[in-house]
Design goal:
The protein is mainly α and about 80 residues long. It has a domain at about 15-50. It contains three helices and no strands.
Length: about 80
Amino acid sequence: MLRHMRTSIELSDGLLGRARRLARRRGTTLRALVEEGLRRVLAESDTALLFRLSDVTYGEGGLVEGLAEGDWERIRDLAYEGRGS
């Protein structure tokens, strides 16, 4: 069962005029044009949510020998070793 909701939106006069002219040229209604636009924007938004960060890990086995996970002070010291005082 399809349900429809009546709603109001405020559009600038220029945008509304352009939309009405386009709807007339296409032989459709303003409502259909607005629905088409909303569907397109929502579809773009859905695909944007599918972003996956690329795996850019290097090497194998995790931490170097002698380091334990959570030993952040030691990891930081090694990362900055030889860079300043």
